[in-house]
Amino acid sequence: MTEYFLLDVFTDRALSGNPLAVFPQTEGLESGTMQAIANELNLSETVFVGQSTGQHRYPIRIFTPTEELPFAGHPTIGTALLLVELGMAEHDRSLVLEAGVGPLVVEFDQSLASFTTAEPFNILASALTQVAAAEVLGLAVHQVLSEPALASCGLPYHLVELDSLEALEKARPSPSAWGRWVSPSGQDQIYLYVLGNHDKATQGVRARMFSTPGGVREDPATGSAAAALAGHLAQNKGGRWRWQIVQGIEMGRPSRILAEAERTEGDLSIRIAGEAVVVGTGSLQLPS
Question: Tens digits of per-residue pLDDT, 130-185?
Fold first, then answer.
């Protein structure tokens, strides 16, 4: 029997945020078995924690139902908080999760876990134009505020800024238009966002994320996309900037992601923070 925990991440309430399965003891599991388990559970991501490689260091592998990911935000936050709850890590000490993208250093502050992205922020021109993005999303061209960008802190996203919450709520990706404009780029993730008040110390953002394969599907909370967005918003700024990103509203799973970007001596550091709650446990009887 292989035990796992079910968490809701980027929330402090059960049945909201982004669901996550974490297997805290996975020595001996092969990659194919991990992928099959992730497919069986059919959550956005499933995490497999390996044997500790040092004090407060654990390797992790992250799988969607169809593929392994080098990095994802809500698995990092959820796994870190679970390891503290299980006594495998300490709340007052840093934890290092060794992901495919590199070591992710996690810190804890009350109910929050936060991590610094391991891979430097990178931005390129998106394959999408304003016209193409509008067609993909079923919106008018004027509702897309600028040319989309392709940004990444380990996992790339087409970032599309919209002009209003009404446009954000109305967006309905067309599978046929997605196949024409998004899939040929090889980057099948779009992050839509609307900026809020620019005068607050922590700016408000509303967002939605759509991805494929397996048909176009929506994600209720996407830490890796929030990191890419923070880098994009801060790329021409100095000092420290903070955003509170609300996602998942349209899915009935409200989520809250805290993002921070700080530039010091030319280097851009990006941090993502959030909460998580354990909502259940289970076990799988695997073939011997």
Answer: 999 999 999 999 999 999 999 999 999 999 999 999 999 999 999 999 999 999 99
Triad 153, 154, 155: Cα angle to 5°: 100
CATH topology of domain 2-118+275-284: Diaminopimelate Epimerase; Chain A, domain 1 (3.10.310)
Q: State the catalytic residue, choosing from 3, 27, 30, 45.
A: 45
Those residues with Cβ within 8 angstroms of residue 32's Cβ, 6 or more apart along the chain or in another chain: none
**CA separation for the pair 248, 176 (Å, rounded):** 24
Q: Clarify whether 68 is annotated catalytic.
A: no
Let me know if the fold of 2-118+275-284 is the same as that of 122-269: yes
pLDDT tens sequence across 5-38: 999 999 999 999 999 999 999 988 999 999 999 9
Q: Which CATH architecture has domain 122-269?
A: Roll (3.10)
Tokens of 169: 């709520």
Residue ranges of domains in the chain:
2-118+275-284, 122-269
Distance (Å, whole) CA 99 – CA 118: 9
Alpha helices in 14-154 (DSSP H): 31-41, 73-85, 130-137
**pTM attached to this predicted model:** 0.96
Six-digit token pair at 285?
């009887």
Burial 32-41 (b: 16+ CB within 10 A, else e): ebbbbbbeeb
